[in-house]
Amino acid sequence: MTTPPGTGALAGIRVLDLSRILGGPYCGQVLGDHGADVLKIEPPQGDDTRTWGPPFRDGVASYYHGLNRNKRVQHLDLGSEEGRATLMALLPEADVLIENFKTGTMERWGIGYEQLSQRFPRLVWCRVSGFGADGPLGALPGYDAAVQAMTGIMSINGEADGGPLRVGLPVVDMVTGLNATIGVLLALQERTRSGRGQFIEAALYDSGLSLLHPHAANWFMDGATPKRTGNAHPNIYPYDALATGTDPVFVAVGNDRQFASFCRCIGEPALAEDPMYRDARSRSVNRETLKPRLEALLAKFDGRALVETLMAAGVPAAPVLPVDAALAHPHTAHRGMVVELEGGYRGIASPVKLSRTPASYRHAPLTPGSKFD
């Protein structure tokens, strides 16, 4: 599936993506999906994630393919005078520069933000970093799982009677990439008024802390250390995976009306009138008795059929699907959430749907390029 160039919301915006690994490249891909002309500058050996496999295609890992479409790639050694000269020749045409070098590296090469901002005052410079440039952890390298550990995310993830657990995807890196994208878009919008670019920093540490809702909000209010609750929500119930006679289902009851509908669907309408469970506060406080009562009632149901019944009644519910089933689901196809390009590339499409300027998919990963269009 391809769409013509020049139709995206960011058509005409030119981006130099000097970043590697995940957060920065993800930002570059989002901008590229929405029409920006993105040149990815990689070191001679390529982005490290080219080796992060298996699986591989033609020696390049799937990990790299998942973050680097809608870019054209060239290799430059920015530690050399020749490489820096090539970069400097591209900068007058660039609107945005994305980088995630270790703090001080680009400055040592003479191409840091302070050194170049006067020469290129309209340039929006976005740095993705681990912890920022200063402070107690300033300039230290950041890695997704380590930041999950440091920011409390692991402490509240996992079964209640188990140990801290890493979220099973690089959530901090990806949210940092999204925060970087938001920062770029804010700076470009402000530039339309001032005519000037600015420096943006999206740090993994900050992004990790930003993900702590509602646990941080709970702690700010009552001072109690948040605990792991498994699949259950810490504030509302039943918002949990529940066993049935077949497959488990996830039920996401958010209010009293939905709980009453849920109880009718499972043949126990009186449960919604029980003083222990008739309002959200009571259900949350008494969840330890409510869950076994619900699962005893659900034991006679087929999980998949129950989900259909609940959804038809306005009760949010879902089967617990593996990744392959989720990607092959008919609604995934209906939403256009899988991209296919010539050469066998398949990937997750942009989740942001614009009516007049939709995302477009123009370049498969590894497309070469040496200048802006």
Q: What would you note in describing this structure?
A:
The two termini are 21 Å apart. A hairpin with a 6-residue loop joins strand 9 and strand 10. This protein has 373 residues and is of the alpha/beta class. It has 15 helices and 13 strands. It is elongated. Helix 1 (23-33) crosses helix 7 (171-194) and helix 7 (171-194) packs across helix 8. The mean pLDDT is 96. The relative contact order is 0.14. A six-stranded parallel beta sheet has the order 5-2-1-6-7-8. Strands 9-10-11 form a three-stranded antiparallel beta sheet, with helices on one face.
A few lines on this structure:
The protein has helices at residues 23-33, 62-65, 81-90, 105-108, 113-116, 144-150, 171-194, 204-210, 215-222, 256-265, 280-285, 287-298, 303-312, 323-327, 330-334; strands at residues 14-17, 37-42, 56-57, 60-61, 72-75, 96-99, 124-129, 199-203, 239-242, 249-252, 317-319, 338-341, 345-348. With 373 residues, it is of the alpha/beta class.
β-sheet strand percentage: 5-15%
Rounded radius of gyration (Å)? 24 Å
Helix content: 25-40%
Q: Please describe the biggest sheet, giving its number of strands, its sense, and whether it closes into a barrel.
A: 6 strands, parallel
| Number of helical segments with 4 or more residues | 15
Taking strands numbered 1, 2, ... along the chain, how are they ordered across the largest sheet? 5-2-1-6-7-8
Unreliable segments of 5+ consecutive residues: none
Q: Whole-Å distance between the termini? A: 21 Å
Provide the structure class: alpha/beta
| Number of beta-strand segments | 13
Question: Averaging pLDDT over every residue, what do you get?
Answer: 96
Order of helices and strands: EHEEEHEHEHHEHHEHHEEHHHHEHHEE
- Overall body shape: elongated
